[in-house]
Amino acid sequence: MTQDTETKAKAGAIIVPVTLFEQNCTILWCEATKKAVVIDPGGDVPRIQEAIAKTGVTVEKIWLTHGHIDHVGGAAELRDVLKVPIEGPHPADKFLLDNVVSSGARFGMAGVRDFAPDRWLDEGEKVSIGGLGFDILHCPGHSPGSVVYFNAELRFAHVGDVLFNGSVGRTDLPGGDHTTLIRSIKQKLLPLGDDVGFICGHGAGSTIGQERMTNPFLTGEM
After folding, report:
1. How many of the other CB atoms lie within 10 Å of CB of 219?
2. CA dihedral over 26, 39, 43, 60, signed as positive or negative
3. What is the mean pLDDT of residues 144-153?
4. Contact at 8 Å (CB) between 191 and 183?
5. Residue 55 belongs to what H/E stretch?
6. Is residue 3 classed exposed, middle or buried when 0-12, 13-18 and 19+ CB atoms within 10 A define those classes?
7. Which CATH class is domain 7-214?
8. Per-domain residue ranges of the chain
């Protein structure tokens, strides 16, 4: 009875597509406290700052799903501007964060910096923002250090580039492996439940159930 009458923490989120990669930089916040996190600030930091101002939330952290340039290009700059810590990804992506400048040069992205997060994340760890807690799932394959942020109460996950609406992450980049990626999805994401909705790194989000039924890489998986 008590649990039924408790006020549960709720979340709000907006997606800010950034850079030519149209990467889904996500501003996620706890409605109860208006404390927020920026997930994967890939670039266009002034645009991200403008979106933060419009929401009226207070950003206290930056979370990274993995180390590819389109997801981390603005992370160091935004950390300096907001004076907040960066959490994630898994340390297996250190080689990517050590080479942000060279990666950016290949795509004409100036002003990016190599950096290290304030906290690396691993399987089974937890992160929080305001009253919202998230479990960390290490899901290698797209990159060796990709992580997924999962909130069981909200039935919500941010999956980065591990899984997409109708597709999965590419595995032709350094450290990528298709077999490993599919194993990560089958062993870590599908068991979360068909009702779990997710935001991904590019394009529209989806649900685990929708992808289980219709994603050509996953159809028929139980």
Report:
1. 10
2. positive
3. 97
4. no
5. helix 45-55
6. exposed
7. alpha beta
8. 7-214
